[in-house]
Design a protein that fits this description.
The chain has about 180 residues and is α+β, with helices and mostly antiparallel strands. The protein is built from 8 helices and 6 strands; from the N terminus they run αααβββαββααααβ. Helix content is about 35%, strand content about 15%. A 4-stranded antiparallel β-sheet has the order 1-3-5-4. A two-stranded parallel sheet has the order 2-6.
Length: about 180
């Protein structure tokens, strides 16, 4: 049986997966709901669908099974569900969600890399979604604790070169946070 951790090991997550995907977190919709073996990544845009702005994009491999159809139906029942479309000759599906109203400002803060300014609601969702505690790197990013500074010292890296002013984690590289497919 695949675990969420097993599923994540094979992925290079976008910052959107780490910080934006949890905006969709709700009771019964945690990491194991979204992070399945077919999950590819979360994005903030799609170069092939410029008309869809300020949305949450989730890319999954498509598998014609009863289990996947049930999963797809459960995604479509999420109140923020907007649309979906196929890629890779119908071997992948992009699901598009509206940003939850309570996270509209958080979404803009994400684009600027201002993680510590997220609402307490989103910070709580991120930590619950990923199962992180107060001693985690994520907690330290969100609350700017000394642990994140020790992390950078241990890596011998200057985080200030890529961070928003006053933040301890690099700003998202927006080009990498947008899905680009030559379809």
């Amino acid at each position: 049986m695949n675990t969420v951790v097993d599923n994540l090991k094979k992925l290079e997550l976008t910052e959107a997966s780490r910080f934006v995907l949890p905006m969709l977190y709700a009771s019964g919709r945690n990491d194991s709901f979204f992070i399945t073996p077919l999950f590819n990544n979360c994005y903030i845009g799609d170069a092939n669908h410029q008309e869809l702005q300020n949305k949450i994009f989730l890319l999954y491999d498509y598998k014609m099974t009863i289990q996947f159809v049930k999963f797809e139906r459960s995604l479509e029942l999420i109140p923020e569900y907007n649309t979906d479309y196929d890629y890779a000759n119908e071997h992948q599906v992009m699901y598009v969600f509206d940003v939850p109203e309570e996270h509209a400002e958080d979404y803009q803060l994400f684009l600027q890399g201002k993680y510590s300014e997220f609402s307490e609601l989103l910070k709580s969702k991120i930590l619950k979604f990923w199962g992180f505690k107060e001693d985690s790197l994520f907690y330290s990013i969100l609350y700017k604790t000394e642990a994140i500074l020790r992390h950078w010292v241990a890596l011998d890296k200057d985080y200030t070169l890529t961070s928003a002013e006053g933040e301890y984690w690099p700003k998202p590289v927006l080009m990498q946070e947008n899905f680009m497919n030559p379809d």
